[in-house]
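Ops channel
N.P.: pipeline sanity check, posting one input/output pair.
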């Protein structure tokens, strides 16, 4: 997945596309911020609510976005921050982006014609629209400074689904040792990793296929490793959830160590950033993760490819197909809680429920009231857009997508807005 998506040579996100970027009607898929401005506005309101609940710090707020896309989400959030009085508290906006072409698009969206400078961290710029705010681009979250006493607000929308996964299957243990001279294995089942290898060329004895069939044939295939890989010996042991699946022969699990590492990093930024001597006080900051995947079960058979708004094999046309996998939300929560005792996790909840709780219907009504009665097309676009974000069936995104929050631990005294809490 990493090679296909972010390789410097031919990666899906890192290569320049002749038809524009990957998003929108002319790209391969459409994300929620591109569907309706209301999505970004409500995400912005969520962070404003956290800012208010945490005492309205006057400065030192770090706004961090993982995988900023076109910059549309951050633009809508900033507009909301300004309207609701939070913009002045933000010192720096960090955009974690590995793609040079998308970084350029984000810079144009957020900073217009301002100069983009190369720095020791990555790149930086300013914007006349957002004065007194610095924009900094880095290629990895670990490059974002961990400033003691700062308030990190982190948004990750459709970021975790693009992180590489490892797939394992529980198979029966053989009676003979895998390696000559090694002791015999007496376990009932063993984990074997599913590995990717080039697909074999069609046999010359088979009937000749058409050129169209040849072009659609995946260039790679998946097979079960006959010997234990290092990942198979280590990764399924990091959680009791994975260990419990071993006894079910034939069961499969998907694990993303990079996703867990990012969740740990986020938790430590929020739960361990107090000044010395104040470690027992509530740490500031919050993270909101919105992505798709099961609410509680371990993802399985979720690796997918998308091209031109259609599902295709993830093993065909490497670098030209968007490859993604379901997010293990429970795994992220587990990693975050284990990384820092100073945080608590809320959710995941369905995106539809989250957005309704944040007031998507009411905001849509406000926009509709401003539309001239003669503009029926705009009325339909606004109405269909917000409903697509919350609908649970058909082409709706309300059920498949989930929202999860990582916030400072309060001992159950406060729940975030959108997860059962209020501002009061």
């Amino acid at each position: 997945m990493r090679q296909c998506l972010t390789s410097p040579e031919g990666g899906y996100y890192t290569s320049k596309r002749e038809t524009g970027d990957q998003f929108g009607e002319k790209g391969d898929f459409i994300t929620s911020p591109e569907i309706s401005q209301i999505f970004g506005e409500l995400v912005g309101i969520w962070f404003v609510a956290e800012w208010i609940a945490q005492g309205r710090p006057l400065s030192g707020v770090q706004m961090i976005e993982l995988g900023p896309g076109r910059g549309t989400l951050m633009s809508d959030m900033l507009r909301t921050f300004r309207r609701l009085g939070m913009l002045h508290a933000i010192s720096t906006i960090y955009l974690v982006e590995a793609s040079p072409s998308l970084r350029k698009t984000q810079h144009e969206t957020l900073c217009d014609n301002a100069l983009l400078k190369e720095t020791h961290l990555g790149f930086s710029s300013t914007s006349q629209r957002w004065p007194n705010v610095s924009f900094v681009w880095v290629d990895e979250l670990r490059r974002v400074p961990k400033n003691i006493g700062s308030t990190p607000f982190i948004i990750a929308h459709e970021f975790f689904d693009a992180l590489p996964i490892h797939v394992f299957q529980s198979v029966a243990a053989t009676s003979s040792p895998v390696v000559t001279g090694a002791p015999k294995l007496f376990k009932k089942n063993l984990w074997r990793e599913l590995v990717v290898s080039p697909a074999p060329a069609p046999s010359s004895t088979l009937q000749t296929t058409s050129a169209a069939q040849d072009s659609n044939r995946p260039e790679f295939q998946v097979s079960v490793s006959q010997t234990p890989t290092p990942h198979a010996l280590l990764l399924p042991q990091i959680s009791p959830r994975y260990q419990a699946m071993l006894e079910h022969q034939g069961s499969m699990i998907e694990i993303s160590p990079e996703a867990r590492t990012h969740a740990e990093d986020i938790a430590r930024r929020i739960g361990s950033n107090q000044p010395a001597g104040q470690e027992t006080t509530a740490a500031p900051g919050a993270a909101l993760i919105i992505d798709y995947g099961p609410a509680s079960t371990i993802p399985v058979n979720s690796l997918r490819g998308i091209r031109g708004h259609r599902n295709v094999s993830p093993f065909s046309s490497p670098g030209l197909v968007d490859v993604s996998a379901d997010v293990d939300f429970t795994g992220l929560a587990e990693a975050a809680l284990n990384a820092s005792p100073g945080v608590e996790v809320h959710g995941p909840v369905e995106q539809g429920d989250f957005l309704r709780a944040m007031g998507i219907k009411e905001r849509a009504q406000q926009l509709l009231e401003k539309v001239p009665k003669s503009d029926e097309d705009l009325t339909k676009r606004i109405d269909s857009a917000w409903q697509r974000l919350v609908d649970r069936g058909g082409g709706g995104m309300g059920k498949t997508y989930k929202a999860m929050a990582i916030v400072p631990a309060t001992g159950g005294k406060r729940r975030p807005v959108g997860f059962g809490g209020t501002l009061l």
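N.P.: looks fine end to end. The first helix runs from residue 2 to 6.
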